[in-house]
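User: Second chain of the day. Same drill as before.
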Amino acid sequence: MNIFLKEMSYKEYVKYLIPSILTMIFLSFYTTIDGFFVSKYANSDALAGINIVIPITCVIFGVAVMLATGSGAIIGELMGKRNQKKANEVFSLTAFALLVFSIVFSIVGIVFLKPIAVWLGTSERLMEYVLPYAFVVFAGTIPMAFKLFFEYLVRTDGNSVVGLSMSLIGLVLNVLFDYYFVGVCNLQTFGAALGTVISISCSAIIGLIYFLKHSTIKFCKFKYDFKVLWKSCSNGCSEMLTELSTGITTLLFNLIIMRVYGEDGVAAVTIIMYIYYFFIAFYMGIAVATAPMISYNLGAKNLMKIKKLLKFSFITIMITAFLIMGILFIGGDFIIKIFIQEGHVYELTKVALLLFSPLFLFNGINVFLSSYFTAIGDGVSSAIISTLRSLIFVVIFILILPKVIGVNGVWITMPLAELCTIVIAGYLYHKKGIKFES
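Assistant: Same format as last time:
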């Protein structure tokens, strides 16, 4: 944990971020790889079918992130205070809670598989692609949840390289398994989901071995302290909403676009969401790498280190935002053609990306400030930011804008939601953030 107290130059800070950013990028690739292989070896309906299931994966990842980040802030502060025994108990309790959730979610999902698919907006034409993919995802809830849980908490343990290794190994295996199951065996969406869950399981096992044998944070006997569990959930709920924002938005997009453009429109939404996953991973990487350092230094009462970390973070986010916009402006067409060639879906996606891309100028600050408030134990402010950007403003704009300016209103919903949120997030940062001496 000495790395959290070490004085860093900006160059050292950026170097420290790289494993976490790469980890989040690799994580974003899991569903994207499925989409790539089914679009190449199946058809655009299979691609749309995967998109229908995205809200399910977002729930799994959302709960895992909530428990990991919420407990991680508590664990980091306890370790900063040299209370390792209590830190271990909090870790063990939240891991048990995640296991219980995963078992229940898996059983409920498998039993009510078809009604859930219908509720998510699938059509009869897409049902043959949705049901096999959703079944495997529900069956694989436990490894999917714990892969993410372990990847977040290895950073709290001060070992982001382990998280990077977990993601990289899982990613490579995912490509190999997807190629075999989809490209060779022609199992379409069932094969894509199977490849993803197997590769994620291998990654989760690496994380489990690390926490059993090598980490500072250890599994131990724990008391059923529901106050601590509630604090972990409430503190991390904003990160859950950040994760769920993609699922919520995808669901709403699917329901509206399906009525106008049918299955081709859903395929366009899928590609836009893949682009969103990839680029928001840069901001998520900055946030999840910096948050444990903030929590630890808060416990150690090293406020000037936190001030420096915040300065470095904002500079990095600003640079990243302009780089992303440049990449999309210059290479947007090339990115779209990775998934689909010239045709109706391509034209829809091209227009959508042009209207959607300004989102990346604003959402980096929102994602980071939500994580920052979680790190300092202010779950309320964190939840306000996440709820506004992922739910309230999204619902308001997506219900109003398409009626006012047509279907293109769908694509500018998220940029406007992020823009409105950043104003409130900035206000909360100045009013409720850590106060530093002049």
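The mean pLDDT is 86.

User: Great, on to the next one.
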